[in-house]
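4.2 Preliminary Data

To establish feasibility before requesting continued support, the project team ran the inverse folding procedure on a target of 574 residues. The structure was first converted into the token representation described in Section 3, and no sequence information of any kind was made available to the design step. The complete token record follows.
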């Protein structure tokens, strides 16, 4: 254990030292230098930062837990993201860089007006504080507790104490990066940690496959696919948590917002040195997303093969699968290294979200509303103070998430509440010229209210009803086995899950289209007085990467081929 802890501290400190050395001369005094890295980020840093901001423990723990329960079909969250990144590179990014914006709400002000900017800034800030940051801290703590076996190490029956300790440790370290370093410090540390995560993640897969079959990875893969063919179908059946047809509605919309409109993610693309470098970074990240299932899905499948029949993973704790696998298959000397890599991934997501929250507050609230004449020094100071307050709030909220069965599903549901309305108004803003600002504000209000009622009221009620019905069904089956055929039961738990999964994502798609339709109708009835024309700020060289379109097409083709390779079409008609 001493070796594990020592290597963990060493690698964590090494990343911090390298990051400080590479960024010690950066401009941290101006708004552009602090919030946009002085518009100096090249393709490599953008790709690395995008990947590690996204690829954190909510993916490693959550998606591998999803793969343990549902199989290969959960890879959709990764590979569909590759297509969304292509759309970001070719459609959204050129328009963002042309406006020279630092935040998405800035673009919305230019297109729809000041009130729309204020509303969206506040939505982002509240969502990051209440949803995103606490989930990053909680899922990160859960993963580290599982990998290091901290609960057994300290002999504690109550996990709450360990969760509180890990959450505050990660939160404090992440806050130092975000508050004192700025965007370039975040991007550089992301890139360094990203390399470590790639190496560590691949080691987990290799050692895991050898644990399945000592003859090697190919023999292990053959053994797993033969033993559990239903787990290796890229197409989710109608009774799975992610039915295939939902990829074309809710799943694509959620990933499209995440990669093209989510401030936490796109801020590093807004700091691109040029459109060419920005497109390189985004498309390189898209290519990596096609390969991401190797890290965030395959370990879950390995864990299912190794542990499903041993009762080591409870039915409501699939998210524990990844930590158990790492602890069992990784050689002890490497455990500390991988824990350090995991901390880097957690810190990346946390400090990126915290940096974006500070940016939104400083530029969208403090300078835009409270003190329009504030100097750069005061603006940066306000961001640092606000980031510190937000960090403390998120560290208090995070341990309260103990008890969530699937942290990844919970994240997607909560994100959908604000993802969909903001994506709708951004797309209408980019594709139309006469839709007025009040139409966007109405769409935001309608979308937020509708999706909040659905995910905060109706979905929990449905889950509770399903759980209660499952208990009743078990009692009936146990007491009256011989009379099962005459007992009338309205629906099984699987049927409830099937309906919920299908309806949830299609409902998201329906709300999205309805909001766009609402704005277009308002724009037709009461258009804005003048036609909107986007102006070139001149802040960024807008010469595109000559290989952007061919590379984007190649990524889409690879996604389609990947699905076809693992597809069993029979589940679509069963």
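Position-by-position output of the design step:
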């Amino acid at each position: 254990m001493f070796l594990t802890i020592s290597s963990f501290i060493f690698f964590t400190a090494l990343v911090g030292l390298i990051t400080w050395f590479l960024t010690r001369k950066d401009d941290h005094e101006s708004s552009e230098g602090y919030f946009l890295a002085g518009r100096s980020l090249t393709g490599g840093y953008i790709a690395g930062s995008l990947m590690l901001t996204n690829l954190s423990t909510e993916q490693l723990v959550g998606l591998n837990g999803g793969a343990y329960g549902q199989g290969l079909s959960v890879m959709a969250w990764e590979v569909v993201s590759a297509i969304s990144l292509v759309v970001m590179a070719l459609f959204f990014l050129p328009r963002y860089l042309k406006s020279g914006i630092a935040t998405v709400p800035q673009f919305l002000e230019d297109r729809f007006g000041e009130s729309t900017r204020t509303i969206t800034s506040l939505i982002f800030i509240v969502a990051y504080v209440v949803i995103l940051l606490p989930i990053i801290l909680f899922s990160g703590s859960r993963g580290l507790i599982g990998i290091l076996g901290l609960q057994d190490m300290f002999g504690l029956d109550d996990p709450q104490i360990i969760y509180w300790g890990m959450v505050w440790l990660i939160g404090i370290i992440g806050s130092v990066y975000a508050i004192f370093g700025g965007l370039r410090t975040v991007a550089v540390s992301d890139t360094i940690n990203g390399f470590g995560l790639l190496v560590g993640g691949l080691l987990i897969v290799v050692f895991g496959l050898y644990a399945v079959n000592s003859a090697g990875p190919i023999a292990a893969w053959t053994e797993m696919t033969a033993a559990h063919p239903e787990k290796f179908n890229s197409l989710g059946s109608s009774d799975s948590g992610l039915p295939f047809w939902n990829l074309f509605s809710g799943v694509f919309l959620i990933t499209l917002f995440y990669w093209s409109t989510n401030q936490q993610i796109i801020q590093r693309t807004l700091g691109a040195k040029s459109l060419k470098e920005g497109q390189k970074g985004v498309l390189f990240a898209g290519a990596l997303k096609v390969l991401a299932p190797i890290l965030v899905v395959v370990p879950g499948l390995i864990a299912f093969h190794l542990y499903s029949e041993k009762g080591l993973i409870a039915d409501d704790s699939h998210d524990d699968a990844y930590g158990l696998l790492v602890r069992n298959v990784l050689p002890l000397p490497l455990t500390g290294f991988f824990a350090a890599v995991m901390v880097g991934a957690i810190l990346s997501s946390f400090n990126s979200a915290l940096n974006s929250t500070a940016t939104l507050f400083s530029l969208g609230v403090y300078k835009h509303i409270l003190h329009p004449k504030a100097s750069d020094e005061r603006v940066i100071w306000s961001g640092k103070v606000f980031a510190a307050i937000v960090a403390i709030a998120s560290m208090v909220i995070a341990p309260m998430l103990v008890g969530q069965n699937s942290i990844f599903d919970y994240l997607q549901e909560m994100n959908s509440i604000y993802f969909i309305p903001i994506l709708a108004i951004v797309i209408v803003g980019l594709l139309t010229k006469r839709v007025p600002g009040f139409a966007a504000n109405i769409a935001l209000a309608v979308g937020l209210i509708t999706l909040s009622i659905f995910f905060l009221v109706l979905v929990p009620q449905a889950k509770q009803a399903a759980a209660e019905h499952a208990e009743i069904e078990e009692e009936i089956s146990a007491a009256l086995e011989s009379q099962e055929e005459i007992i009338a039961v309205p629906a099984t738990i699987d049927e409830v899950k099937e309906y919920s999964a299908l309806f949830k994502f299609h409902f998201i798609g329906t709300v999205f289209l309805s909001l766009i339709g609402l704005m277009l109708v308002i724009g037709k009835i009461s258009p804005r007085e003048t036609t909107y024309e986007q102006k070139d700020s001149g802040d960024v060289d807008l010469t595109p990467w000559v290989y952007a379109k061919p590379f984007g097409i190649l990524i889409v083709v690879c996604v389609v081929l990947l699905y076809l390779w693992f597809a069993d079409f029979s589940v679509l008609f069963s």
